[in-house]
Design a protein that fits this description.
Length: 74
């Protein structure tokens, strides 16, 4: 799960997947802005068939947060 999400994040944010760990903060460490986050989450939603409600987005700060959310909502 982590590997696939890491690949999606790296592709969406044009980052090196090797630099992304579970503790990577999407905005602080990868320089994503709010639009980047929304686009990245849309790609994750499409890949995993989950829906991320707008009110959940502020809670998804790190890669681990996203992995745990997807695992819990698949």
């Amino acid at each position: 799960m982590f590997e696939k999400i890491r690949e999606i994040i790296a592709s969406q944010l044009r980052s090196d997947a090797e630099d992304i760990t579970e503790d990577t903060n999407i905005m602080d460490d990868l320089g994503a802005d709010s639009l980047d986050v929304v686009e990245m989450l849309m790609a994750i939603e499409e890949n995993f068939g989950v829906t991320v409600p707008d009110e959940e987005i502020p809670n998804l700060k790190t890669v681990r947060d996203i992995v745990e959310y997807v695992e819990a909502n698949m």
